[in-house]
Write a structure and sequence with these properties.
- By secondary structure, this protein is an alpha/beta fold.
- The chain contains ten helices and eight strands.
- Strand 4, helix 4 and strand 5 form a beta-alpha-beta unit.
- It is globular, with a radius of gyration of 19 Å.
Length: 280
């Protein structure tokens, strides 16, 4: 909120993400993990991802095993023109050089350090570095095995067969004023969030869903978008194949997004064109 009482407008990266939704129906994000790749390889994957249709890049990790996080962010930012967004595992990941940071709160857990503690540490750094903060409600979803984020956060994921729990947490994120809900199976997850859960949550809230973790095939990404996801994130699978699947993932996400958008428009067109039908 601004001093005159008006709501503060969205920042340029947030606006760009919203344009992706308007123009393509859904967006594709690639997660780069500096703990898992050397900086040179990370930059090469970032460049290949941009060439093959990615809409933005996330840089983040569950740990900090190497002292190269800030170097990696700066190197990726220098090489690409798509937005570079920090996806922080803790306040130490807030570094200068990125375009924005997902200001995450782990709403699915009850660990106060990840609900608000790390955020309090990170907020002054974000302001000092001039980063765009994008508030995101983060929900950890069971991916079929214990993941790094589950262990490090000391929280339990939402059970795969409990879409109502995911719906309630996502709605809380919306009422907190967060811009997106990120439903994540965690790095290296065996399975993505269930399609039925994605559909239930997307129909229940009014803010876009970001789905990541356990998505290993472009067809899976397309089904998740078809169920209502606004953005799909992949990471590990691209590290393993050298980024060869980026184009296939981008096409699957964008094709499914455009198909979903077209399906939404058809009933409205039919109501207007059929004789004797209401324009409401």
């Amino acid at each position: 909120m601004q001093p005159d009482g008006r709501e503060k407008p969205a920042g340029p990266v947030d606006r760009r993400l919203r344009r992706v939704l308007e123009e393509k129906g859904a967006g594709y994000l690639v997660l780069l993990d500096p703990d898992r790749m050397e900086v040179g390889a990370l930059v090469d994957l970032a460049h290949r991802s941009e060439e093959h249709g990615v809409d933005a890049l996330l840089v983040g990790s569950s740990l900090t095993l190497k002292p190269t996080f800030a170097e990696a962010v700066a190197a990726v930012r220098e090489r690409v023109s798509v937005p570079v967004i920090i996806f922080p595992g803790n306040a130490f990941h807030v570094v200068p050089g990125a375009d924005a940071v997902f200001f995450l709160s782990l709403l699915s857990g009850r660990n106060p350090q990840l609900l608000v503690g790390e955020q309090v540490k990170a907020a002054p750094l974000i302001k000092s570095y001039g980063l765009e903060a994008i508030p995101v409600g983060y929900l950890l979803v069971d991916s079929g095995e214990r993941t790094s984020v589950e262990f490090m956060s000391a929280t339990m994921p939402i059970p795969r067969d409990k879409p109502d729990i995911a719906m309630a947490h996502a709605l809380a994120a919306q009422y907190f004023g967060m811009r997106y809900v990120f439903m994540d199976g965690g790095s290296g997850g065996r399975m993505p969030a269930p399609v039925d859960m994605v559909r239930a949550v997307s129909e229940y809230v009014e803010i876009p869903l970001i789905i990541g973790g356990g998505i290993r095939l472009p067809e899976e990404a397309g089904r998740i978008v078809g169920a209502g996801a606004g953005f799909v994130v992949t990471g590990n699978v691209l590290e393993e194949d050298g980024g060869r699947l980026v184009r296939d993932f981008a096409e699957a996400v964008h094709d499914a997004g455009r198909a979903r958008a077209a399906a939404r428009e058809e009933p409205a067109i039919e109501r207007v064109t059929q004789p004797g039908k209401s324009f409401r």
